Amino acid sequence: MTTSAHLAASPASVMPGDEIRIPLELRNSGHLVEAYGFEVLGPAAAWTVVEPSTLSLMPNTAGTVELVVRPPRDSTVPPGGLAYAVRVLPQEQPEHATVPEGLLDIGAYADFTAELTPRMSQGRTGARFQLALDNRGNHPLTVSLAAKDQSEALRFTLPAAPTVVAPGRAAFVRVPVRARRRMWRGVPTPHPFQVTAAPAEGVDPVTLDGTLLHRPVLTAAALKALIAVLALLALLAVAWFALLRPVVRGAAKEAVKGPVQAAESKAADAKDTADRAADAASAGPGGGKPGPGPTTSPTPGTGPAAQPQANLFSYRLTASAAAGGTKSTTFTVPDDKVLRLTDLVLENPQGDSGTVTFSVGGKPLLAPALENFREQDFHWASALLAGPKEEITITLTCRTVGRPPAAPAPSGCSAAALLSGTLE
How would DSSP label each residue in 65-121? Predict the structure, then answer.
């Protein structure tokens, strides 16, 4: 054999994202000048090059080239031992090719983030939040969850067992939050809290802030409606005792007045007949006349006219834009209608980066950054009003297209807005 090759450093340790150079020593034991080419074999070939790419050696001389190994910092490069080889190809005598083998020790790294959505939610008893655990490292993470609030006014429902997140994947955990006591009336009270996601592999924990806006069971509108109902019941009671009840009693008396007078007349006739028989005297028959007939009861008045009812309204706006572009989607209020907007939910399903602007009548009201949320909702006690032919618009500005887990890479950014309220 006229060619020999040896890898000087094996095994060799390298971290993803770093670079290592491994010497490859060659010797030409033949009698001809030989030129050599190189081919890296195995999974490491995608991120390994040989410098220089060719080498010429005189007879009975030796030389060295270097394997430059640059494993990417990506979850697809698992930690542990990775075998590789280099095929050394002599140009003059290809039958004397040799394949030295080596071993790489790929290091493990962690890249962990977490996100709580929405950051603030509201409810009369509680609300549901969602925690996204994102493992961008190259080995699985076991994440434990804990939650607390300083006022101890909330209860949290967390998984009893830690959550295992595979490398390059995201896990979603629902976090129901409930108030310990029910608030019957008053103003909405915010309760801030913190959720901590702590991986067990020595990775720094991530602490996330959230807020539950505790709303009273009886709102100001509900109290007004209850007072109105009680006032209506009181008015009906007054109308019954002051107007309808005397009318009913009068009608009853008038209904029995005629029969009573007829019975009294018959009794008087019978008495006169008996007196005439006893006295043996003739007397003109007496007769009673029937009293006046019953009177007609007055017609009771009608109640207040029914109030017009507003129609429930729900509409979804979606917008898509390529990276670096802007796209708007608009809803126009009908000509003879007024939209009373009470709820808004913004969605960023792909995890894109950029902004989404919410405008009413050409006036921007909200412009949150896409990277700060996957789903965010807004609720207004005082509704936003949009008049006839007024436009409600969402404008999507795409900076970076997201990459949803376990799904094909999208071609552009995508966002949506769910509008809820009443159309009057």
Answer: EEEEE---SSTTS-SEEEEEEEEEEESS-GGG-B--EEEEEEPP---EEEEEE-SEE
Rounded Cα gap, residues 276 and 264, in angstroms: 19
Read off φ and ψ for residue 269, nearest 5 degrees. -60, -40
**H-type alpha helices, 201-295:** 220-239, 245-279
Q: Which residues of 38-60 are buried (b: 16+ CB within 10 A; e: fewer)?
A: bebeebbeebbebeeeebebeee
Residues 109 and 158 sit within 8 Å (Cβ to Cβ): no
Could you report the per-residue pLDDT of 238-248, keeping only the tens digit for each? 877 877 777 76
Return the number of other C-beta atoms located less than 10 Å from residue 328's C-beta. 15
Domain segments of the chain as ranges: 3-106, 112-214, 219-254, 311-423
Please give the class, per CATH, of domain 311-423: mainly beta
**Bridge partners, 197 (sequence order):** 145, 206
Respond yes or no on whether the N-terminal peptide bond of residue 52 is cis (omega within 30° of 0): yes
Q: Which residues contact 76 (CB under 8 A, 6 or more apart)?
A: 138, 168
CATH topology (fold) of 112-214: Immunoglobulin-like (2.60.40)
Q: Is 283 helix (H, G, I), strand (E, B) or coil?
A: coil
- Give CA angle at 309 (305, 312), nearest 5°: 175
Beta bridge partners of 65: 24
Do domains 112-214 and 311-423 share one topology? The answer is no
344-358 residue pLDDT tens: 999 999 899 999 999
Fold for the domain defined by 3-106 = Immunoglobulin-like (2.60.40)
pLDDT at 245: 73
Q: Please, is 356 exposed, middle or buried when counting C-beta atoms within 10 Å of its C-beta (0-12, 13-18, 19+)?
A: buried
For 124, what's the count of Cα atoms within 13 Å in the CB-facing half-sphere? Answer: 7
Largest interatomic CA distance in the chain? 181
Report field, pTM of the whole predicted structure over 0.70: no
